[in-house]
Amino acid sequence: MTTLFEPQAPTLVPIVGHKEMFPVRRVYCVGRNYAAHAREMGKDPDKEPPFFFLKPADSVVPGGGDIHYPPGTKNYQHEIELVVAIAKGGRRIPVADALSHVFGYGVGLDMTRRDVQFAARDLGRPWDFGKSFDEAAPLGPLYPAASHGHPSKGAISLLVNGETKQHGDLADLIWSVPETISFLSDYYMLQPGDLIYTGTPAGVGPVVAGDRLTGRIEGFADLDVTIVPAL
Ligand code: MN
């Protein structure tokens, strides 16, 4: 069997302490999972069911570094997030079993064309153009749960040019990691290689070319990203 052209290679994320890489299958993202961020988006933070959107697997930028200011926006924003990496698939996963499906965790950025997202939101249209685009999901190396545990609390913050813009604590997630996995698995067959971006704390804001972003979660190495001019 031959193919018309070379199929795209999978996105591979480094793993701390391992030679093997983590191949990305799908990228699920939780919307509004910290109360203070829900409020800054103009929404009620009461515990309604979580909602999700997806990003393409090839929008993940392993290790961060330089990412380009994307086309089609005048309000390009940062969202720092804890990312869950799934190594064991399943459907209808009970909350009590959910962590057994987790390989590990990383520090990620859900980069967003906020003006495009809000225009879509306000018209009842899909969020894809606001959330799903090239280089929209920088991700630091994964920390295996087997060696580093399952973080359920700890500071999460985002600095722009050294100044703290976002700050929160993993303990403030409205939907915990096990609850999020369980909910998602009622709608999708989760598979090894899936990533879940778990939502961002308050303080999101715009960035421009030249800005240096530092994503920081207690217990993880910083994720460093620099915004470079549009292609
Ligand atoms: Mn987000």
Written overview of the protein:
The chain is globular, with a radius of gyration of 17 Å. Strand 17 and strand 18 (223-228) form a beta hairpin. The strands form five sheets. A six-stranded mixed β-sheet has the order 4-3-15-8-9-12. A five-stranded mixed β-sheet has the order 6-18-17-13-14, with no helix packed on it. The protein has a three-stranded antiparallel β-sheet with strand order 10-7-16. The chain has 231 residues and is an alpha+beta fold. It is built from five helices and 18 strands. Manganese (II) ion is lined by residues 29, 79, 81, 110, 197, 199-200.
In short:
This protein has 231 residues and is an alpha+beta fold.
